Amino acid sequence: MMSMSDDEVAVTFTRPTLTPKLYLSKGPSGWPETFKRCDADQALAKFIGTGVTVQELVDVFMLRQKSAEKPGIDWYTITGFLSRTYGMSFKAVPSLVGIAFWAAVIQAQQAQASAEGN
Length: 118
Hints:
Strand order of the largest sheet: 1-2-3
Distance between the termini: 57 Å
Order of helices and strands: EEEHHHH
Largest sheet: 3 strands, antiparallel
Number of strands: 3
Mean pLDDT: 88
Radius of gyration: 15 Å
Number of helices: 4
Helix content: 40-55%
Strand content: 5-15%
């Protein structure tokens, strides 16, 4: 029987909660973990590089989710999208980047819901 080595274990996080200065998410330990928004957002901007904005990447993600067979969003949806977009393993997506991108998606969903409500 094969077993996973430590470097094969996938790290997962739950949907982040957004506060003015932090992103909060339950991580692999099962305990809430905090991520400073400014650090996470900077890491995401550096990760995506030039030529595309975070908002453009979020827009593409949201369009793809509308036509997805499984419309829910989880950690693997986030890291899978980023890894396919940038041609890497989903395990290579830094946790800080995944959390920041998920938070940007949540903010876009909230803005869209607010606009539809008016």
